[in-house]
Amino acid sequence: ALFGLIAVEARPLQWFLWMATLGGPLLLLGGARLRLPPEFAPRLTRFLIFALWLEVPVCAAQYARLAEVQIGDWYTGTWGNANLVGLWAAVALSVCGVRLVTATAIPDRARTWIVAGGVAAAAAYLVWGASAKLYSASIFGAAGVVTAMLLLADGGLFRIGTWIRAVIVILAISWTGLLAESWVRDNFEGFVSNLENSEKRTLLTRVVFGVAERYNSILGVGPGMLGSRAASAASGDVLYKETESAFASLLGPAPKPEGWAMSGLWNADVVEDVFYKSALLTMPFSGWGSLRAELGWPAVILLFFYLLSLGRQMAAIAARHSGAWSIGVAAAVGCVGLLPMLFFDNVLEQPHITGPLAILVITARGVAGALKGTKASASDRSTALESSVDHSRPHSSLPRGRP
User: Fold this and answer.
1) What are the phi and psi torsion angles at 10 (to 5°)?
2) How many Cβ atoms are within 10 Å of 104's Cβ, its own excluded?
């Protein structure tokens, strides 16, 4: 950051905006610690399940009204955002899948199986209809990683039953892929074609290989100067966006690195054409790209291990505290899922993603702290009770045959 200020362009206001959009969420995810009552986790779980079911009739009505009229993005739900519907529905479905593979709290009643199956079916329906399938795929991949974390934490990786369930899940996924072979092939070919000719690929090529020709290739150009939302907010003269707000006029014009890297990548023609393509593969915005350009390769490496270790912490909480199991797994899947999603967009700078994720992380950490404190207090009371027993007379000194 100091290198960017001294050697590139002195714009301290960009630092503050970057801190509010990216630095703040990172500190919130890693540092926020609240002591929450143990019953808060199941209450939050029930509320989230209610919110999931609330989206089903709304999305069904939107599909019936718009599916044959508009291209994609039908399932916006009550959030008005089709990406969010698919993202959080994929998280809910992943929690069901992880519970099934790890055999955690297997339902012993038919009613429980029916309810769990209904939740999984509702989540699968929302994932099917929502946009941003790349987000859902990232979440499902993260669910596999979190499953391995949980099994390693409790030793379940070495149980034959775990391997049998894992093999069944893999075979089911493979069988589904074979049934939808043409759909998978068409989407994969479309993915490759869109990425090869996309503005996102051009941006990533510039920030990975072109930065060294103009700036320091290791340290970057400073926070809020290239690719981040803070940089985009000041770049109305380079990017196709509304520039009439007082905030945009206060920050503009675009920082020099932003003007160089974004030149010609997001104009009126591209915005009009993206309607017929995959937006995530076309838009020249990437969390990893902006981080590499602004803070350099060390920040990329640190953020990767930061999110991975945060996911591992959430998985460990879920393994140790059954009361926070669902919340901990959801938080772990969300943290690990950010790793691939950051390739496609600046998701860590979007409050509608980091906000709910921060709630999950803080809840898991807070409830785990409360449960740990409760166990410690119970242990202290037990120790105090044992120490209060009168051991002044040894039992061997009592007369034989008397109580």
Assistant:
1) -85, 100
2) 17
Which long-range CB contacts under 8 A does 44-53 form with residues at least 24 apart?
A: 44/327, 44/359, 44/363, 45/326, 45/327, 48/92, 48/330, 49/92, 49/119, 52/88, 52/89, 52/92, 52/119, 52/122, 52/123, 52/126, 53/119, 53/122
What CA dihedral angle connects 161, 165, 171 and 174, to 10 degrees? -140
Tell me which residue of 235, 233, 341, 353 sits closest to 289, measured CA to CA: 341
Token reading at 187: 């989407």
In terms of Cβ atoms closer than 10 Å to its own Cβ (0-12, 13-18, 19+), residue 51 is: middle
Q: Each residue of 36-72: pLDDT tens digit?
A: 888 888 899 999 999 999 999 988 888 887 766 565 6
| Spatial separation of the C-alpha atoms in residues 221 and 202, rounded to whole Å | 18
Q: Name the residue with tokens 């775990």.
A: 162
Nearest to 81 by CA among 139, 133, 130, 124: 130
Span 129-135, mean pLDDT?
79
Two structure tokens written together for 222: 């400073």
Exposure string of 376-396, with b = 16+ CB inside 10 Å and e = fewer, is eeeeeeeeeeeeeeeeeeeee
Q: Model's pTM, two decimal places?
A: 0.82
Torsion of CA 30, 33, 36, 42, to 10 degrees: 0
Q: How far apart are the first and last CA of the chain?
A: 78
- The pLDDT tens digits for 65-119 are 776 656 566 778 888 888 888 889 999 999 988 888 887 755 566 777 788 888 8
- Residue 356 tokens read as 């709910």
Token match 């034989």: residue? Answer: 400
